[in-house]
Predict the structure.
Amino acid sequence: MKHFGIFDPYLHILGGAERYILAIAQSLSSECQTVLFTKHPDRVSEAQKKFGFTVSNLTTRPWPDTVAARLSGLRQLDLLLYVTDGSLFISPAKKNLLLIQTPAHIPKRTLVNSFKLRSWQTILCYSQFMADIISRRLHVQPKTLFVPVSNRVKKIPEKENSILSVGRFFPELHNKKQKEMVDIFRTLVPQLPKVQLYLVGSVDPGGENYLESVKAAAQGLPVNILTNSSYGELCALYAKAKIYWHATGFSEDLEQFPEKAEHFGVSTIEAMSYGCVPVVFGGGGQKEIVIHGKNGFIWNYESELVALTQKLFAEPQLTTKLAKAAHTSSASYGPEIFNLQLHEILAE
């Protein structure tokens, strides 16, 4: 059995990268013994509960604290996946994958980094949005491999008059804009008095004050804020939500600060896999997932989000049509396709 190592400095956050690395480990579990280098081994069980799947042949180990120990340990690996925080090191593993999540995590193009980058045979990212930025900045061509969605329902469930948005609560980088969504929802309540908004997500370290500001903005509104939902509870919310909102990048200068866009949008695909109609901000990787008027809607201004949401509640036939198209297109992000593309990348 081969030996696969993963180093992720962000395991304490349990965001999209953590779901991604565990999906890769799960895909390779029948052929690899995986060690996850982390200072937070207790978070592995929490991650598996949050993301709804377990990984066999997975152990944890602290990241070596000296260069000599690191070189000695990594030399034993057939494959290493590193979730970079913007830094690089030389890896002696037989094959090395570098995962770059956002524009903010792209290593600076220096002479030293150019030398270090030579030991990383493959750069991975989630979307073409990220691939284009990486290519421009590092002059290398990354491989695009999406975050897989595995719990797609066979039949779209009966829907309720609810809007759902899923994303961690944190104030910086690609903030999920929960507070802005609450403010926009307030303008919709008089026209849609029986509609409820659900905001679901964990709270990042340092995000507690932001969460409180969202709660304060939601006072008196039919807004439900859930921060400790299990994966099963989240799926139940996907099942009953008629519309899925996503607002990351709204009101930001994405030309100057592309890191504030959504770099992929796995929660959007999850929502689509349950027949939610996505109404998402037109930035980052979201534009690769949602085709305006075909399987959902893309908006750029607050007035567009309001008008499109009203339209969907007013025209049930249109909503049903888009829900079916969203459900169908979500199949393109399933685990079978993910596994095939992952093994193609590793075989190169």
The longest strand covers residues 2-7.
